[in-house]
Specification:
By secondary structure, the protein is mostly helical. Helices cover about 65% and strands about 10% of the residues.
Length: about 190
């Protein structure tokens, strides 16, 4: 910062920088969640539900697929959504945040992944209870819960969203660097008379 600024000016600039990072990071997270939910609704309300075996917000259930190709097809949906979300976060942060674009994009993408894992996506666990009275059939109950994935198949499904954490900072860095180069070229041009 310029040494001619007084303490109030320096505090104002620091506050603006912090609010720039926090504000546009929050906007990027909200946009990512909206994209995630829109993709889930599109899959639920179209024939894509059969192709992807369910929804974006429902993780693997042990009985929903039979082959490795089914697993690959099921994982391709969250991977595609994660790529779109990563580019969306990177674009917002890369074009709007003044400094530390890659760090801000990584934090926003991580926030999106945590929101998706903890609140948007759900898992189902099936419990078989022993009969209370001997000779009666066993009772089976299903529990749906939100939270971190459990089991290798759920982690495989949920980890596809980590692509957003890789793509977003790289794309934000690329866009910020491109904008800086354009600004440097404009500054180097001679002034027209």
């Amino acid at each position: 910062m310029d040494s001619t600024y007084d303490a109030l000016d320096r505090a104002t600039i620091k506050t603006w920088r912090a609010s720039n990072i926090a504000g546009w990071g929050a906007v990027a997270v909200v946009v990512a969640i909206v994209i995630h939910q829109m993709a889930d609704q599109i899959v639920r309300t179209t024939r894509a539900s059969a192709a992807f075996q369910g929804t974006l917000n429902g993780r693997f259930f042990p009985f929903t697929f039979t082959t490795g190709w089914d697993e690959l097809r099921r994982i391709s949906l969250p991977a595609a959504v994660a790529l779109i979300v990563g580019f969306a976060i990177g674009t917002i942060v890369g074009k709007k945040v003044w400094r530390r674009q890659a760090l801000t994009a990584a934090a926003a993408a991580t926030a999106y992944v945590l929101v998706a894992w903890l609140w948007l996506e759900s898992s189902m666990h099936i419990h078989t209870l022993a009969p209370v009275i001997p000779g009666q059939p066993q009772e089976t109950t299903a529990t749906i819960y939100h939270g971190f994935p459990t089991g290798h198949l759920e982690w495989a499904f949920a980890s596809a969203s980590l692509l957003a954490v890789v793509i977003a900072p790289l794309w934000a860095w690329f866009l910020a660097r491109r904008a800086a180069r354009r600004a440097a070229r404009r500054a180097a041009r001679p002034a027209s008379t």
